[in-house]
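User: Sequence in, structure out. Go.
Assistant: Echoing your sequence, followed by the C-alpha cells.
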Amino acid sequence: MGERVLPEIIPILEKGLESDQPDQRQGVCIGLSEIMASTSKDMVLTFVNSLVPTVRKALCDPLPEVRQAAAKTFDSLHSTVGGRALDDILPAMLNQLVCFMLNQLVSFHFVI
C-alpha cells in the first residue's frame, strides 16, 4: 500500500467503526486485516498506536459478526507485531470484563 496511503486510510477506517451500520463496522475489520496482510511489518508498527484501540473497540462490539471479524483482525495484528498485540489489547479488555462483572454483582446485591 505504501506510506502515502496508510495515513489517509487508517483514520477513515477508525471512523467507520463508529457507524450504526453493523456491515460497515464488520467491513472496517476486514479492511484492516487486508491492510495488515498487504503491508510490511514496519508500516504496521508505524500505525500500531492507531490500530490497537480500533481493534480493541471492534472486539467489544455488541454484534457477534463484528466481533468475529475483529478476532480475525486481531489475529492479523498478532501475526504481524507479535506479543505487543496481546500486551496492548488483552489487559484493557480483561479490565473491562472485571468492571462489568463487579457492576453486575453490585446491581444484583442491591436487588436482593
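User: And one key feature?
Assistant: Residues 91 and 97 are 10 Å apart (CA to CA).
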